[in-house]
Design a protein that fits this description.
heterotrimer; A alpha/beta (about 250); B alpha+beta (about 70); C alpha/beta (about 350); A: Rossmann fold; two-stranded antiparallel sheet; 9 helices; C: Rossmann fold; Rossmann fold; 2 domains; 8-stranded mixed β-sheet; 12 helices; 16 strands; binds thiamine diphosphate; binds iron/sulfur cluster
Amino acid sequence: MKKVFQKPESLTDAKNHYCPGCSHGLIHRLIAECMDEMNIREKTIGICPVGCSVLAYDYFNCDMLEAAHGRAPAIATAIKRLLPDRFLFTYQGDGDLASIGMAEIVHASARGEKITVIFVNNTLYGMTGGQMAPTTLLGQVTTTSPYGRKAENEGYPMKMAELLSSNEGSAYICRTAVNNPANINRTKRAIKKAFQVQEKGLGFSMVEILSACPTNWGLNPLDAMKWIEDNMVPYYPLGEFKVKEEQ
Amino acid sequence: MAKGKVKFFTDRCKACGLCIEFCPKDVLGFDEHTINILGYHPIKDLKPELCTGCAICGVVCPDLVIEVERE
Amino acid sequence: MERVLMKGNEALAEGAILAGCRGFFGYPITPSSEIAEYMARKMPKIGGVFVQAESELAAINMVYGGASTGARVMTASSSPGLSLKQEGISFISEAELPCLIVNVSRGGPGLGGIQPAQSDYFQATRGGGHGDYHTIVLAPSGSQEMMDFAMEAFELADKYRIPVMIMAEGTLGNIMEPILMREPVTKFSEKPWATTGCRGRKPNIVNTLHLGNEELESRNHQLFNKYQIIKENEKRADAFLVEDAEIVVVAFGIMSRIVKKAVIEARKKGVKAGLVRPVTLWPFPDEHIRTAAKNARLFLSVEISMGQMIQDIQLALAGRVPVEFYGRIGFTPNPEEILQEIMRLAEREGL
Ligand SMILES: Cc1ncc(C[n+]2csc(CCOP(=O)(O)OP(=O)(O)O)c2C)c(N)n1
Ligand code: SF4
Ligand code: SF4
Ligand code: SF4
């Protein structure tokens, strides 16, 4: 018998603190598998956000920083500029990236910073108890949109992959989901591609991942996966939005 | 058909059921006679003889519970 | 040694480069922008990094990232910009990342004006952001010190793993004075905590989160033990004619030079005036203040603000000697008006 699936070396043995069926743990593993396969663990520096994944520095087996809410791309920018041969990734939720950290992410992308952003879109603020995020869907009930998000009042959900793909500095922008095995595999391929884009120095790369927050959605883990398919994918289409080829 | 074997770090299992749902061979189920350190009935291979070692269970598990071997 | 004529802002920037600073992250604001402009010209030529950030928030977080690599990095801004940087300074203090933060300060509150001011004294010396912390604050009084303090700031920052702030009034950034160029620093301390990729070692983590009650308390105690050591070792002030002084004037930065003139004039008029000039605003040189109080009947704090440092002088004197205040904002008090104030007080006290 041959081992065909096991914990990647780029993750520590620590048990994660996420809720049952939360996608964060799974996405951590996909990143770590890519680090293993590209043999870059020892030159990778990761930056965690403020959000449910704030403790990710305990889970990744590489140098890690914890950022102030939304500022990870600025931190990554400086490290990458000072240490250009290292791998930099930021790991950010939708509140972190699309609300408080909007300026930092847009400008890191515009400058074409050679960093990889893993953007976990679960349509709300998980850590603080399920408040509305810029990515909350129209009609979606959250603790701060208790009657459902309305365009007149709260505006429209933001499409970050589309937005950032319009920046010249963005070299690879992709949106995936982790609601079934096929999409999980696509997500991993996208993360790998983003890392390769960074390796080649082509520019900014981001993978937006449609993810489940069963707890704040009030759904069991399986229904949460269906919810991604039924509600998120129609508004947030999957696919590659920007692929800059090597010159 | 390839022959597979799944191994579990049951202490990590949060009984989300994703692996059970996505296992194409219906190998997996909860061990209702056990409660793990996290307070859940953890995962168990109820029909190990059907396992092909496809590793889908490992791929969908958010908690690094599962290791898969294949012949 | 070469003597050159340099603007204060440029002397500071050059001092930072001589100290080995290889990363500058900033956002333009008068009267600090010349530091960024100087760095934009110089950094690419010496293998350094210059990034014009999208905001002061981004700039200070770039400093957080840059410092975490172990490189000597800095940012420079002016008062409204410093307000935005406070979040980052709190994080940098907790993560104990050495760096230089420059405030070429101007008048507030709000957008205020671009006139030189010292009204960010509280913000600088009390921490400024959330949580219990301090930064070392140096207050230069001329171009030479703009250069020298920039160099010293990096040494202090590395020695104590602490952000060091230089607070200089806009005037200091702009005046041109001849200065002695210094030799570049060649010896740097090891930084085994830096996040540079974990080749050949265990992963390093730069972190400011401490969820456990005991962990949080012990972290704060660790920081405060360090602050205590800094208080014991690093308080600095210059004293001028204080031995027999009956009126001790206290002023920092550019104000200290102006007050010195007034003190000399007061002496000519037979008033025993003296001057204490705090060089470190934090830790505040309270012992120097107490030493100068030996024969003092009165202290006078002269500031370009509505009165902030006066509170530290009062704390240092603990009621032993009364402390008066003279300050303006929008204007820098001139030697004549300070002399007038000294003479008024001398007459009132019968000195
Ligand atoms: C400056 C600041 N504002 C607000 C917060 C509170 N806060 C913590 S996490 C969070 C939102 C996290 O949501 P998201 O980024 O979507 O991540 P998730 O928890 O869903 O993974 C907020 C608002 C904070 N820590 N800092
Ligand atoms: S609250 Fe939501 S995002 Fe946070 S750990 Fe739980 S399921 Fe995951
Ligand atoms: S390896 Fe495949 S067949 Fe075996 S338990 Fe896992 S999912 Fe089922
Ligand atoms: S997916 Fe993992 S955590 Fe969920 S039930 Fe299966 S083994 Fe347990």
